[in-house]
Amino acid sequence: AGLHALTDALLGALGKGGSPYRGRGENHGYFLNNLFSHSGSKVTVKAGFDGGYRTSQSTSENNFLGTFTFSDLDAYRDGTATTYRVTRGNPRLTNHQFEMSVFEENDIKVNQRLTTMLGIRYDLQTNLSDHNNAAPRIGFAYAADRATVIRGGFGLYYDRLWDWMTNTLKRSDGKQQYDIVINDALYP
Fold first, then answer.
1. Global confidence as pTM
2. Is 186 helix (H, G, I), strand (E, B) or coil?
Protein backbone atom coordinates (compact mmCIF):
# COMPACT_ATOMS: atom_id res chain seq x y z
CA ALA A 1 0.00 0.00 0.00
CA GLY A 2 2.92 2.35 0.74
CA LEU A 3 4.44 1.85 -2.71
CA HIS A 4 1.05 2.50 -4.35
CA ALA A 5 0.65 5.78 -2.43
CA LEU A 6 4.19 6.82 -3.37
CA THR A 7 3.52 6.03 -7.04
CA ASP A 8 0.30 8.08 -6.97
CA ALA A 9 2.11 11.01 -5.36
CA LEU A 10 4.90 10.78 -7.94
CA LEU A 11 2.46 10.66 -10.87
CA GLY A 12 0.57 13.64 -9.47
CA ALA A 13 3.79 15.61 -9.08
CA LEU A 14 4.99 14.84 -12.59
CA GLY A 15 2.19 16.49 -14.51
CA LYS A 16 2.59 19.44 -16.81
CA GLY A 17 -0.02 21.63 -18.43
CA GLY A 18 -1.64 25.02 -18.21
CA SER A 19 -4.05 25.99 -15.45
CA PRO A 20 -6.19 22.84 -15.33
CA TYR A 21 -8.93 24.37 -13.10
CA ARG A 22 -10.75 27.45 -14.33
CA GLY A 23 -14.44 28.32 -14.01
CA ARG A 24 -17.07 30.79 -12.86
CA GLY A 25 -20.80 30.76 -12.25
CA GLU A 26 -23.89 32.77 -11.41
CA ASN A 27 -27.09 31.47 -9.78
CA HIS A 28 -30.53 33.02 -9.25
CA GLY A 29 -33.57 31.60 -7.47
CA TYR A 30 -37.19 32.63 -6.97
CA PHE A 31 -39.28 30.81 -4.35
CA LEU A 32 -42.81 30.87 -2.97
CA ASN A 33 -44.42 28.82 -0.20
CA ASN A 34 -47.51 28.87 1.98
CA LEU A 35 -49.18 26.86 4.75
CA PHE A 36 -52.92 26.49 5.32
CA SER A 37 -54.26 25.15 8.60
CA HIS A 38 -57.71 24.51 10.10
CA SER A 39 -58.14 23.17 13.65
CA GLY A 40 -61.36 21.53 14.74
CA SER A 41 -62.31 19.66 17.90
CA LYS A 42 -61.68 16.24 16.32
CA VAL A 43 -59.83 16.93 13.05
CA THR A 44 -56.96 19.27 12.17
CA VAL A 45 -56.16 19.77 8.49
CA LYS A 46 -52.89 21.20 7.20
CA ALA A 47 -51.99 21.74 3.57
CA GLY A 48 -49.28 23.66 1.86
CA PHE A 49 -46.99 24.14 -1.07
CA ASP A 50 -43.40 25.10 -1.70
CA GLY A 51 -42.04 25.91 -5.12
CA GLY A 52 -39.24 27.62 -6.86
CA TYR A 53 -37.44 28.36 -10.07
CA ARG A 54 -33.66 28.26 -10.29
CA THR A 55 -31.53 29.48 -13.14
CA SER A 56 -27.79 29.24 -13.42
CA GLN A 57 -25.07 30.08 -15.90
CA SER A 58 -21.63 28.64 -15.49
CA THR A 59 -18.43 28.46 -17.46
CA SER A 60 -15.99 25.63 -16.88
CA GLU A 61 -12.74 25.62 -18.79
CA ASN A 62 -11.18 22.96 -16.57
CA ASN A 63 -8.31 21.32 -18.43
CA PHE A 64 -9.07 23.09 -21.75
CA LEU A 65 -5.31 23.62 -22.19
CA GLY A 66 -4.57 19.95 -21.47
CA THR A 67 -2.38 18.08 -19.00
CA PHE A 68 0.55 15.75 -19.59
CA THR A 69 1.28 13.01 -17.03
CA PHE A 70 4.70 11.34 -16.84
CA SER A 71 5.52 8.01 -15.20
CA ASP A 72 8.86 9.17 -13.82
CA LEU A 73 11.56 11.82 -14.13
CA ASP A 74 13.35 10.01 -16.98
CA ALA A 75 10.13 9.95 -19.04
CA TYR A 76 9.78 13.69 -18.45
CA ARG A 77 13.37 14.30 -19.60
CA ASP A 78 12.78 12.10 -22.68
CA GLY A 79 9.55 13.97 -23.51
CA THR A 80 7.35 10.85 -23.39
CA ALA A 81 4.20 11.34 -21.36
CA THR A 82 2.14 8.44 -20.05
CA THR A 83 -1.02 10.34 -21.05
CA TYR A 84 -2.14 13.66 -22.44
CA ARG A 85 -5.68 14.60 -21.41
CA VAL A 86 -7.53 17.64 -22.76
CA THR A 87 -11.16 18.76 -22.39
CA ARG A 88 -13.08 20.04 -25.41
CA GLY A 89 -16.61 21.28 -26.08
CA ASN A 90 -18.72 24.22 -25.01
CA PRO A 91 -17.52 25.65 -21.68
CA ARG A 92 -20.71 27.69 -21.13
CA LEU A 93 -23.79 26.01 -19.65
CA THR A 94 -27.20 27.52 -18.88
CA ASN A 95 -29.58 25.51 -16.71
CA HIS A 96 -33.19 26.11 -15.65
CA GLN A 97 -34.95 24.10 -12.98
CA PHE A 98 -38.48 24.30 -11.62
CA GLU A 99 -39.22 22.42 -8.40
CA MET A 100 -42.30 22.18 -6.22
CA SER A 101 -43.90 20.23 -3.40
CA VAL A 102 -47.50 20.05 -2.16
CA PHE A 103 -48.78 18.24 0.91
CA GLU A 104 -51.84 17.54 2.99
CA GLU A 105 -51.89 16.18 6.54
CA ASN A 106 -54.86 15.29 8.75
CA ASP A 107 -54.64 14.81 12.51
CA ILE A 108 -57.65 12.87 13.77
CA LYS A 109 -58.34 12.80 17.51
CA VAL A 110 -59.74 9.28 18.08
CA ASN A 111 -60.18 9.80 21.85
CA GLN A 112 -58.54 11.71 24.73
CA ARG A 113 -55.41 9.54 24.54
CA LEU A 114 -54.98 8.65 20.85
CA THR A 115 -54.44 10.88 17.82
CA THR A 116 -53.69 9.49 14.35
CA MET A 117 -51.94 11.35 11.55
CA LEU A 118 -52.50 10.66 7.85
CA GLY A 119 -50.86 12.61 5.07
CA ILE A 120 -49.33 12.67 1.63
CA ARG A 121 -46.67 14.79 -0.04
CA TYR A 122 -45.89 15.12 -3.75
CA ASP A 123 -42.57 16.40 -5.12
CA LEU A 124 -41.81 17.38 -8.71
CA GLN A 125 -38.90 18.96 -10.50
CA THR A 126 -37.81 19.47 -14.06
CA ASN A 127 -34.56 17.90 -15.32
CA LEU A 128 -35.82 14.52 -14.08
CA SER A 129 -38.13 12.19 -15.96
CA ASP A 130 -39.31 10.54 -12.70
CA HIS A 131 -42.68 12.00 -11.67
CA ASN A 132 -44.18 9.26 -9.45
CA ASN A 133 -43.14 10.96 -6.22
CA ALA A 134 -46.25 10.68 -4.05
CA ALA A 135 -45.04 9.98 -0.51
CA PRO A 136 -47.60 8.77 2.06
CA ARG A 137 -47.15 9.31 5.80
CA ILE A 138 -48.96 7.75 8.75
CA GLY A 139 -48.40 8.22 12.45
CA PHE A 140 -49.87 8.25 15.93
CA ALA A 141 -49.51 9.90 19.31
CA TYR A 142 -50.67 8.00 22.40
CA ALA A 143 -50.83 9.65 25.83
CA ALA A 144 -49.89 6.82 28.22
CA ASP A 145 -50.33 9.15 31.21
CA ARG A 146 -50.15 12.88 31.97
CA ALA A 147 -46.36 13.03 31.55
CA THR A 148 -45.69 10.42 28.84
CA VAL A 149 -46.63 10.53 25.15
CA ILE A 150 -45.58 7.71 22.83
CA ARG A 151 -45.22 8.71 19.19
CA GLY A 152 -44.55 6.63 16.10
CA GLY A 153 -44.97 6.77 12.39
CA PHE A 154 -43.90 5.80 8.93
CA GLY A 155 -43.38 7.79 5.77
CA LEU A 156 -41.68 7.84 2.40
CA TYR A 157 -39.39 10.77 1.63
CA TYR A 158 -37.87 11.96 -1.63
CA ASP A 159 -34.85 14.21 -1.92
CA ARG A 160 -34.38 16.71 -4.71
CA LEU A 161 -31.63 16.54 -7.26
CA TRP A 162 -29.98 19.89 -6.59
CA ASP A 163 -29.24 22.19 -9.52
CA TRP A 164 -25.45 21.94 -9.14
CA MET A 165 -25.76 18.15 -9.60
CA THR A 166 -27.85 18.68 -12.73
CA ASN A 167 -25.22 21.11 -14.06
CA THR A 168 -22.48 18.53 -13.50
CA LEU A 169 -24.49 15.80 -15.25
CA LYS A 170 -25.34 18.03 -18.22
CA ARG A 171 -21.76 19.23 -18.54
CA SER A 172 -20.41 15.66 -18.54
CA ASP A 173 -22.87 14.22 -21.09
CA GLY A 174 -20.26 13.72 -23.84
CA LYS A 175 -21.86 16.43 -26.02
CA GLN A 176 -21.54 19.60 -23.93
CA GLN A 177 -17.97 18.69 -22.94
CA TYR A 178 -15.78 15.64 -23.48
CA ASP A 179 -12.22 14.52 -22.79
CA ILE A 180 -9.63 13.42 -25.32
CA VAL A 181 -6.99 11.06 -23.90
CA ILE A 182 -3.82 10.19 -25.78
CA ASN A 183 -1.64 7.42 -24.32
CA ASP A 184 2.16 7.55 -24.78
CA ALA A 185 1.94 11.16 -25.93
CA LEU A 186 5.01 13.14 -27.04
CA TYR A 187 5.82 16.24 -25.04
CA PRO A 188 5.80 19.09 -25.91
1. 0.69
2. strand
